[in-house]
Structures are given as structure tokens and as C-alpha cells.
Amino acid sequence: MAESSEGLGTVPEHERILQEIESTDTACVGPTLRSVYDDQPNAHKKFMEKLDACIRNHDKEIEKMCNFHHQGFVDAITELLKVRTDAEKLKVQVTDTNRRFQDAGKEVIGHTEDIIRCRIQQRNITTVVEKLQLCLPVLEMYSKLKEQMSTKRYYSALKTMEQLEKVYFPRVSQYRFCQLMIENLPKLRGDIKEISMSDLKDFLESIRKHSDKIGETAMKQAQHQKTFSVSLQKQNNVKFGKNRFINHDRIPEERNEVVFKQALEEDDENEEEVLTVQDLVDFSPVYRCLHIYSVLGDKETFENYYRKQRKKQARLVLQPQSNMHETVDGYRRYFTQIVGFFVVEDHILHVTQKRLVTKAYRDELWNMALSKIIGVLRAHSSYCTDPDLVLELKNLIVIFADTLQGYGFLVNRLFELLCEIRDQYNETLLKKWTGVFRDIFEEDNYSPIPIVNEEEYKSVISKFPFQDPDLEKQPFPKKFPMSQSVPHIYIQVKEFIYASLKFSESLHRSSTEIDDMLRKSTNLLLTRTLSGCLLNLIRKPHIGLTELVQIIINTTHLEQACKYLEDFITNITNISQETVHTTRLYGLSTFKDARHAAEGEIYTKLNQKIDEFVQLADYDWTMSEPDGRASGYLMDLINFLRSIFQVFTHLPGKVAQTACMSACQHLSTSLMRMLLDSELKQISMGAVQQFNLDVIQCELFASSEPVPGFQGDTLQLAFIDLRQLLDLFMVWDWSTYLADYGQPASKYLRVNPNTALILLEKMKDTSKKNNIFAQFRKNDRDKQKLIETVVKQLRSLVNGMSQHT
Fold it and tell me: What PANTHER family does this protein's entry cite (predicted)?
């Protein structure tokens, strides 16, 4: 039915077209024929059929008309002859024909009006189609815009808006719906702007929360890469034999091999997919927001807002916790947050092609942060008293610096800071080793190390570089001259060098600088820490003479071991000691000072011991006759001195001789002081004779050469003052004394007039009260007069000396 109705509709149209073709000039047939192809599909086939039928009809009509007109011509001629008779008949027929034609025309007119009406409808439809073809792309683009908004593809939505405004809206600007769309676009742009800014805020909050993880990942990657490189380098050094052995001091190659293996194992464990900053953080919001604001022409506002917010976050990141210095985790969190912050900035710098973050802005932000970081680290590291914590802090700073250096940041100031922290690290090491040395000294028994077999001998030799062919030849059991503290101290000095060396690793310093640093820190350990501990040890009250002697022996061997320590440092750094600027170890002066202090303490303690014995003296200063033997306290003192000087045989000769001379001089002075004591008011001749017996024992002790090395009677000269004074009183040879006084060859040259006067006055008071002289009044008077005469002459000599001075 549809095809039949369609066919009926097209028949009049085809008839019209055929009529136009028949009635139109040949040059204008083209548009008419085109309308056939613009109509419904397959219409041209039906038209061709119609055209063929029309042609056949025309052929028939032509043929019919030809036949008709030919007969009519003949008939016309005939009829012309009969025209008059047939005119009326013809008129009737024409009238009838006209009526019939009029009836037939009414139907044609009706069909023509239908054709015109269809033509107008067709024209209107064509116009509507054309307008719809203009509007449909606009509507499709606007629909696409809505879809992009709903799926949050805001940058694409802005591009779509731009296309609508520049391409599509001008085509349909006359329509009301277009005006509504145009009015709605600014609102959509505002919504996009707000939404993108909200996404940016969420992004900023997200990266603030993920800064720790980003920084931790970046630092781990840098650490793994560096550990592998350093381990590989150490392994190569071992292969090429850079570590040498000097006098049993070696850098253990096993340490390098273990470190290398551990590094390879760690590298294998971390061969899994390496996380990047893009894996941890979605950067699409910032890219999207940047593109959106760029399209909106408000990029500067976005840049200012982003940079302002990031600077605020930088200030928060750079603000450390108050207790950060207490644990290494506090420092690690601080560094990972900073690394995470700047890794994000660097990523945005490169991905946005410097449109959002420029290199100048990034470097300015880094310089500001670097000053703050250095200030924070300088302040907090000053609270660190644990060298292990300081070393871990140094390792974190190195990883921190290497990580950021890998991203193009300048970190020279961080390595300069590490030089400051290195000094602090050395100070903490010195404090730690102060306790180590103190413990070693407290645990030492200050006696030579006993050795019972070859194994023990080799054990000591492996710890301390001791060489003595004579000791090697001796049979077991035997003893090392030093005590147990010497090898322990030597080992701890090497451990200190190792600990100090740890800080120099990864500081990008030359071997010469490392060598100089190790030698300077070792010098500080020797001259300040070890020297201070030795001095404190020497001054302790419970340290006796035997311990002091052993300390002097120990310092001698430690001093000799300093050259091995220098070789040890050379073995580590491969810097020859003959280099011009190589610092020498100050062990020589350090141990000399300690020895001098110990020697002084020996002299002091020896004198104190003599004073203790002298305080035990209990003389009867009024006795009439001596006991005939030396005092008990003095014999005990001499026996003590003999035993202690036997211990001094291990000391250098000059030290033992000085100690012996000092002891004798101090004993002589103490005895002289005892005679001249102001509290002692009177002395009898018997007491003087008893005192003389004691001095004789002192002189015998001095002449027995308790310490070898004295020439002649050098040691006896310590008692010369006492001897001459006692001889003067016992012989009562005042005439010789007074006559030869002041002469270089005087027999009593060492007797001071004032000393003789004091002692004589003590004896004068005794003579006055002595009952013996009561039986011999004349002798009593003569001696009393002699004493008074001598006293006067002595006083005149004393007065002359005072006036002369």
C-alpha cells in the first residue's frame, strides 16, 4: 500500500516534469532532470518508465495524427467543398468539444493546484532540513559539552566551548536556543574553575600527606644506587691490592667483601618494580588545573595560588619537631618530608615544561629551605651526645644531599655543614673514648702481663706491636714489661680511627683530606683524651708508687707504638707519611708529658711516704745517753726505700736516679726540719748523738747505691748539711767554724749560722737545767760562758748576713 500510494504521488510529478521538458528550452533541461534524482530513491527508474511510455504515446499520437491529418487533408479538401453545408455542423461540434475540454480542464486545474501545494511543502521541507543540518552540529557539540562536564573532562569541555563560540554559534546565532546556550557558557566556565581549584586543593593536601613516602622512596633509590657503586669500587680496590699490610695492622678485606655481598643481596631484593613519584601521587589534578586556567586566560592567578600554597607547605615541612634530636627516626622523617616536597616540585617543573614551576623559582625555594635546614641541623645536632646517633645523622644527611643532587639541586652547603658536624662527631667520640680509657685504667692491675705459653704470647703480639728479641728468647713462663691496659688502649685507638673514618665516608673528600682528618682527630685523642685520662689516673689517691712505675713503663711502650699507628692510618688512606703536608701524630709529646707527670707524682708520693715514716719518730730530746742503735722508724724507712728502688729498676735510669736523689734530699730536709722545729725547745747532747746514729744510717743507705748510676758520693751529698751540722756540735769545734766561716775550703761550709744558732740555743736551755753541772760549778760556768760567747758571735754573723742581703 505504501508503495502504491508512493507511486500515485510520483505520477503527477513525473507528468509535470515531462510537461516542463516538453515546454522548456533545451538549455534549461538540466535543473529539471536534477529534480528527478533529488526525489525519493529509485524515482528515476519510474521516471524512465514514464518517459518511455510517454515516448510511445507520442509516437502513436504522431502516427495517429499523421494518419489523421492526412485523411483530414483529403477530407478537408472535400469538406471545403462542402463547407458551407457543414459549417453549422462544425460549429456545433466545436461548441460541444469546447464544453468537453472545459470539463476536462477543471480536473487538470485541481491537479495543478495539488502539484503547486506539494511543491511548496517540498521547498519548506528542504529549508527545514537545511536549517536542521546547521543546528544539529551545534546541538551535538552542546550535548558533547554536557557529557564532558558530567564525566569531569573539564579541559576537553573548555575546548568544546571554544569551538562552539568560534565555529558553531555564529551559524545559528539568530535562534533563541543559541542565545540560551551562549548565556550558559560563562556559568559553566565558572563551575569548571571552581571544581578544578577544589581538585588542586585536594592534590596539595594529598602531596602533603604523601611527602614522607615520596621522600622515603627517593632516598632509598639513591641509597641503593650509591651502596652498590661504593661496594663495587671497594671490591675493585681489593682485587687490585690497594690494601697493604704493615706490622700486623691491616684493613680487613673481609669487611669489604661482606659489604659488597650485602649490597648485592639488597640490590637483588629491591629489583622489583621501582616506584616513581607518578606511582605514588596522581598529578592529573594539577595538570588539569594548569590547562584549564591557561585556557581561561587566568594562568597567572593559578601560578600565584599554587606557589603561595606550596611555600606555606614548605614552611611546615621545614619546621622540625622539638625532640627531633633524640632519635634518628626524627631526623629521617624530617629529611623524607623535605625530599618528598622538592621531588614533587622537580617533577612538576619538568612535566609542565616550566610553565608552572620555573627553575629559578625552584632554586629560590631550595636556597630558602637550605638555609633553614642548615640552621635546624646545626641547632639540633648540637644536642647529640651519642656518636652513633651523630654518625647516623651524617649518613642521613649524605643520602639526603645525594638524593637532591640527583634531581639537580645544589648541596655544597650541606657538605660544608657535615664538616662542622664532623668536629662535633669527633668531640662525642672523644667523650665516649674518655669513658673507654677510664674503664681500661680501672680494670688494669698495673703489673706486667704474665705469659705461660706460645698461644698467649702470640695473642698479645697480635693486639700490640711489641718487639723484643730478648723476651722472645726467654723460656715460658715470662712477662711482658707493660700491663694489660697497653694492648687494650692500642686496640681502642685503632677503633677510634675506624670510628672517625666512618664519618669521612661518602663526603666526597680526597684521600689527603681524609688522611689529615684522621691524623688530627687521633692527635686530639692522644693529646687531650688519653693524656687527660692518664693525668687523672696519675693524680688519683689510691695509685701507689708501684702503679706509677708501671704507668711510666706503659707510656713508654705506647709512645713507641705511635709509629705503628701512623702506618695504620697510611694503610687506610694510602697517603705516604713523606708527603709534605702530612700531619704527624703527637704521641711522643703526649706520653712524655704523662711520664713527667707520673715521675712528679712518684717524687711527691715518695716524699709523702717519707713524711709518714718521719711522723712516727719518737725522740727523747732530753736523753743523756744515746741508745747505741738507730731509731726503728728510720730503719723501716730505709728498708721501704730499698724495696721501692728495686721496683724502679724497670724505669729509665734518670727517673730512678732522680727519684732516689729526691727521696734522700727530702729525708735530709725532714730531719733538719725536725731539729729546727720551733715547738722543740731543748735538745740534749745525748739526743744529738742518737740523731747522729740515724743520719749515719741514712749515709750508709746512700753509699750502698740503691739505684745504679750515681758517680762517687753524689747521693751522700744529700745529707751533707746534716753531717756538717752534727759534726760541729758533737766535736764542739766552734773555733774552727768561726775562724773558717765564709772560706771556700771551710770544714763546715754547709752549716748556716742561723741554723747553728737555733740548735745551740736549744742546747743552752738544756745545759741550764742539767743537774750534772751542779757538781762541777767551774766547768759549768766555763761551758755556759763558751756557749754564750758562741751565741753572740753567731748572732753577729746572722745580723751581718741580714744586713748584707
Answer: EXOCYST COMPLEX COMPONENT 6, SEC15
What burial letters (b/e) apply to 115-137, b meaning 16+ CB within 10 Å?
A: eeeeeeeeeeeeeeeeeeeebee
Q: Note the pLDDT of residue 269.
A: 47
* Helices of type H across 444-561: 454-463, 469-473, 485-504, 511-524, 531-539, 545-560
Give strand pairing partners of 249: 246
Which set of grid coordinates corresponds to residue 737?
767554724
Instruction: Give the CATH number for residue 514.
Output: 1.10.357.30
- 67 burial (CB, 10 Å; 0-12 / 13-18 / 19+) is exposed
Instruction: Give, in order, the Cα–Cα distances in Å from 54 to each of 15, 37, 44, 66, 340.
Output: 9, 19, 15, 17, 90
Cell, residue 111: 491537479
Give the relative orientation of helices 685-703 and 720-731 as an angle to the nearest 10 degrees: 140
Asked if omega into 477 is within 30° of 0 (cis), the reply is yes
CB 552 within 8 A of CB 446: no
Burial class (CB in 10 A: 0-12, 13-18, 19+), 142: buried
Give a yes or no: residue 37 inside a domain.
Answer: no
Domain that holds residue 327: 283-409
> Consecutive sets of 10 residues in the chain, 805 residues long: mean pLDDT of each?
47 74 71 69 76 84 77 72 71 86 84 90 90 85 86 82 84 84 85 81 80 83 74 57 40 42 47 60 75 78 82 84 81 87 83 75 87 87 83 86 86 84 86 91 89 88 85 84 90 90 78 83 86 87 84 85 84 70 63 82 87 89 86 91 82 79 91 89 89 91 85 85 89 86 86 87 66 51 77 82 65
What is the model's pLDDT at position 275? 62
Q: Structurally, how many domains does the chain consist of?
A: 4
Alpha helices in 353-479 (DSSP H): 359-381, 387-406, 412-443, 454-463, 469-473
Identify whether 298 is part of a domain: yes
pLDDT for 528 equals 86
Residue 502 lies in a domain: yes
Looking at residue 230, its pLDDT comes to 61
Q: Are residues 453 and 585 in the same domain?
A: yes
Is the Cβ–Cβ distance between 45 and 14 less than 8 Å? no
- C-alpha count within 13 angstroms, C-beta hemisphere, residue 39: 22
Do residues 446 and 481 touch, judged by C-beta distance below 8 A?
A: no
Q: pLDDT at position 436, please? A: 92
Location of C-alpha cell 741550764? 768
Q: For residues 304 and 497, what is the distance between their CA atoms, to the nearest angstrom?
A: 53
CATH of the domain at 303: 1.20.1310
CA distance 191 to 370: 40
pLDDT at residue number 314? 83
